[in-house]
Amino acid sequence: MFQSIERRPPDTILGLSDTFKKDANPNKIDLGAGVYKDVNSNTPIVSAIKKAEQKLWETEDSKSYIAQAGPEGFNRQIVSMILGGDSAAVKEQRAISILAPGGSGALRITAEFVNANFPGTRTWISAPSWANHVPILGSAGLSLVEYPYYNYDKHEIDIDQMMDTLKGATTGDLVLIHGCCHNPCGGDLNKEQWQAFAEAAEKQGFIPFVDLAYQGLGDGLEEDVYGVRLLAEKLPEVIVASSCSKNFGLYRERTGAVTLIGETADQISASVSQVISTARQMYSMPPSHGAAMVDIVLSDSGLKQEWISELTEMRERIDGLRSQLVAKLKSVGVDQDFSFIEKEKGMFSFLGLSPEQVQTLINDYSIYMVKSSRINVAGISSRNIDYLAESIAKVLK
Ligand code: LMR
């Protein structure tokens, strides 16, 4: 068998981290995978999580399996973090979150669940989108189609083209939409645009499938779910795949959730039973550790406050880096207007460089980013920003 297997090229995002590690250049900069970094380019453990881990170590008395849906406390905390404690859907138990192995796991079990019940469901994905959306959703059997999202020349989202194309989305289709901090472009819908999107969903009957991987890293924990909450209020059905990787810094613990919002508690509990059964077929039982820590943090007001402060610090640091990069590029004599970087949200922005220019930055300057020129803004620091700006200026000449 193995002799006929061909080698796959490295992953377009994760492969960069491997090459970066092997690079001996002391000035190397990693702007590849979307992982938060501090000023020393480390990805720290959130202190509230560290404390929760200690508490867990002291109190956990078994390693037996947890419930298939995940810890009840975690599920309750997540649904109210997304929809708000006062949400009618939560109160009426027609919005339920269940634990999934990371945001990617949440996307995948949702896709499997939808495809098992409605094979080949047409699913609209923004162009561009996270590079792994197509493999995760497509290989579950969903039929993927694109809708335009970002205008690369104007460096802003192309709402007119997006809404025009989405006129083709009809009853039963899924429309994957980034809840905040669009990956890869950093361009988010404003309130008015969310309103237009919600109205289109209502009129045409498509179901929003929200990828919420960065709650808290755009404008704030509450602000970043403006769109999701609007959809949940206005529409009969919404699906959310969320992640605790970035906002809780739990990357390797694979902690995320599927949230189903529907018309009745009965329909939602039946659908949740199907999602759980899908997960049983795929990996049987969910991981416990990350969810247990999130549950501890969110149910302890002191730890919760500490986490919110740390999250605020992360967000403000990224925002600050956006402004500093724009200013630094100007100060090293770059004529092009990079001010769009300051307006975009979350970890990512496109620099707007060609694949050749990106390759030059990698080969000649050891500055790593995705081929599309997507940068992880959090990878910039006061220690590397001069070298970064000067190198970009050189490849732009
Ligand atoms: C990214 O987009 O860089 C992150 O979400 C990490 C990943 O798995 O691709």
CATH architecture of the largest domain: 3-Layer(aba) Sandwich
CATH topology of the largest domain: Aspartate Aminotransferase, domain 2
Query: What's the number of domains?
Result: 2
Over all CA atoms, what is the radius of gyration?
A: 21 Å
Structural class designation: alpha/beta
Classify the helix fraction into a percent range.
Answer: 40-55%
Q: How are helices and strands ordered from N to C?
A: HEHHHEHEHEEEHEHEHEEHHHHEHEEH
Number of helices: 15
Describe the sheet with the most strands. Answer: 7 strands, mixed
Q: Which outline best applies?
A: globular
User: What is the distance, rounded to the nearest whole angstrom, between the alpha carbons of the first and last residues?
Assistant: 51 Å
* Low-confidence parts: none
Strand content: 5-15%
> Could you name the CATH homologous superfamily of the largest domain?
Type I PLP-dependent aspartate aminotransferase-like (Major domain)
Task: Estimate the mean pLDDT confidence.
Answer: 97
Strand order of the largest sheet: 2-10-9-8-7-3-4
CATH class of the largest domain: Alpha Beta
Give a list of the ligands.
Answer: (2S)-2-hydroxybutanedioic acid
Number of beta-strand segments: 13
Outline the secondary-structure elements.
Blueprint: H1 14-22, E1 29-30, H2 47-59, H3 72-83, H4 88-91, E2 95-100, H5 102-117, E3 122-127, H6 133-138, E4 143-148, E5 150-151, E6 156-157, H7 159-165, E7 174-178, H8 191-204, E8 207-212, H9 226-234, E9 238-243, E10 256-261, H10 265-282, H11 289-298, H12 301-331, H13 340-343, E11 348-350, H14 355-365, E12 367-368, E13 374-376, H15 385-396
Bound molecules: (2S)-2-hydroxybutanedioic acid.
The site of (2S)-2-hydroxybutanedioic acid has 6 residues, from loops.
